[in-house]
């Protein structure tokens, strides 16, 4: 068979490219290289701003010209670096040569030796990965995550008063409302959201083994820890002062664990909504021109929730691997994190794809309130909990001498279908106060949802 022209191996770069494209600005190889150029350029400017080795601060317009090296980083620069790395066999060294060439173009050859000054590759990489992950999370992933939460909040509030038969262990149970059940997910997701928003994005900048040895050899009088801390914080990152050759990635493990946790909650949500659709609680809104089945014309399949499940599982597995492997490096440094970190974008890509599917899926469902009410009306036995609890209260108050109310209701309802008339007859025969009988006979499954609606409104309304 003939070979295809060059094709993407990953579906994220093929079928799903448009959905995850914004992440490529940060978490692609090109995004990483742009951040590396940024770190190299800003480090050189920082050195001159501090007048190291007799230099003077660059004029403002010169700084801006130099910064164009990363601000206008595009295909030409991507190609240049690819060609140079093919020769150097070292990605960060190619970045250094790129910055040196830009200095030469600006007539700044005298500053060439300040490029990559006293840096190990991991000084550049730790700052660059922190920048790219920070920007990808804050500018792409978090907005999509918040959008799902806000859509879910809106739906929860709209359905706060929609009574629904609960199913614990898959069996009929004390009624709730659809809004309250979806609101539980909002509450859970917001808790994880707050932890993700508090992420520290850390970098180190202390040389080959984290000791500033080369720095001090070049200028013993300088306060290098303070200079490098000011630099790292100046580019918007947190500073890690005590490391080996690498920043140990603990902040990454914490972030990926939290994102994985968010994904697990969303996976639970996708499965629940899928189940509610299968029960007929939600109807799916047809999309014009769409086909649900190649052979069954009537079908509208809940594919967005199914796709969300699958992508969350892939993302969760990758995030777990990232969190587990990145925190270990043999002695002062090994290279296992190099390949591992290049898959950060893949993990976030599948997670973002899942968020997009969930958001779209929530837009394409509508609650079938009549189905929920019919289901409740078929399960009057769920009021057994209320009846036996009221009897207990009556016994304690001295208004009843019934023994073992639980067993009494168990005999009546366990494994049996009963209706409104059956319960009315049963309640009339109970030795309890007339006031209690009246309250019990007024109950219906649809009216036995407790504080479900007020819980949603009190906790989720802004």
UniProtKB/TrEMBL annotation:
SUPFAM superfamilies: L-aspartase-like
InterPro entries, alphabetized: Fumarase/histidase_N, Fumarate_lyase_CS, Fumarate_lyase_fam, Fumarate_lyase_N, L-Aspartase-like, PurB_bact, PurB_C
Keywords for this protein: Lyase, Purine biosynthesis
Record-linked PROSITE patterns: FUMARATE_LYASES
Fumarate lyase N-terminal domain residues: 71-308
Origin superkingdom: Bacteria
GO MF annotation terms: lyase activity
Database matches in Gene3D superfamilies: Fumarase/aspartase (C-terminal domain), Fumarase/aspartase (Central domain), Fumarase/aspartase (N-terminal domain)
Broad class of enzyme this protein falls into: lyase
Pathway: Purine metabolism; IMP biosynthesis via de novo pathway; 5-amino-1-(5-phospho-D-ribosyl)imidazole-4-carboxamide from 5-amino-1-(5-phospho-D-ribosyl)imidazole-4-carboxylate: step 2/2; Purine metabolism; AMP biosynthesis via de novo pathway; AMP from IMP: step 2/2
PANTHER family: ADENYLOSUCCINATE LYASE (PTHR43411)
Protein name: Adenylosuccinate lyase
């Amino acid at each position: 068979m003939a070979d295809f022209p060059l094709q993407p191996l990953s579906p994220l770069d093929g079928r799903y490219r448009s959905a995850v494209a914004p992440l490529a600005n940060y978490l692609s190889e090109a995004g990483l290289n742009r951040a590396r150029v940024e770190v190299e350029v800003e480090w050189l400017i920082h050195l001159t701003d501090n007048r190291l080795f007799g230099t003077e601060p660059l004029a403002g317009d010169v700084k801006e010209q130099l910064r164009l090296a990363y601000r206008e980083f595009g295909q030409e620069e991507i190609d240049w670096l690819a060609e140079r790395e093919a020769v150097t066999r070292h990605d960060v060294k190619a970045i250094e040569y790129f910055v040196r060439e830009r200095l030469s173009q600006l007539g700044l050859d005298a500053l060439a030796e300040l490029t990559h000054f006293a840096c190990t590759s991991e000084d550049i990489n730790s700052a660059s990965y922190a920048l790219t992950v920070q920007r990808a999370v804050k500018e792409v992933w978090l907005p999509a995550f918040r959008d799902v939460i806000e859509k879910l909040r809106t739906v929860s509030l709209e359905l706060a008063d929609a009574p629904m038969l609960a199913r614990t262990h898959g069996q009929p149970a004390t009624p709730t409302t659809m809004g309250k059940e979806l609101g539980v997910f909002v509450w859970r997701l917001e808790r994880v959201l707050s932890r993700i928003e508090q992420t520290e994005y850390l970098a180190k900048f202390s040389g080959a083994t984290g000791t500033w040895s080369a720095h001090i050899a070049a200028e013993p009088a300088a306060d290098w820890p303070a200079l490098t801390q000011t630099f790292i914080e100046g580019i918007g990152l947190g500073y890690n002062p005590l490391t080996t050759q690498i920043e140990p990635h603990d902040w990454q493990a914490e972030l990926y664990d939290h994102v994985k946790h968010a994904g697990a909650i969303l996976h639970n949500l996708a499965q629940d909504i899928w189940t509610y659709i299968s029960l007929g609680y939600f109807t799916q809104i047809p999309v014009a021109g769409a086909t649900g089945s190649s052979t069954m014309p009537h079908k509208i399949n809940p594919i967005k929730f199914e796709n969300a499940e699958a992508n969350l599982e892939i993302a969760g597995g990758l995030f777990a691997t990232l969190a587990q492997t990145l925190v270990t490096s043999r002695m002062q440094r090994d290279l296992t994190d190099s390949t591992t970190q290049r898959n950060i974008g893949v993990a976030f890509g599948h997670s973002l794809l899942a968020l997009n599917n969930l958001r779209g899926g929530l837009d394409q469902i509508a609650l079938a309130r009549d189905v929920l009410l019919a289901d409740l009306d078929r399960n009057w036995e769920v009021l057994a909990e209320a009846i036996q609890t009221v009897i207990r209260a009556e016994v304690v108050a001295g208004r009843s001498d019934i023994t073992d109310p639980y067993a009494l209701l168990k005999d009546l309802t366990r494994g049996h279908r009963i209706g409104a008339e059956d319960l009315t007859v049963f309640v009339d025969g109970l030795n309890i106060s007339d006031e209690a009988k009246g309250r019990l006979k007024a109950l219906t499954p649809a009216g036995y949802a407790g504080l479900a609606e007020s819980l949603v409104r009190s906790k989720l309304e802004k």
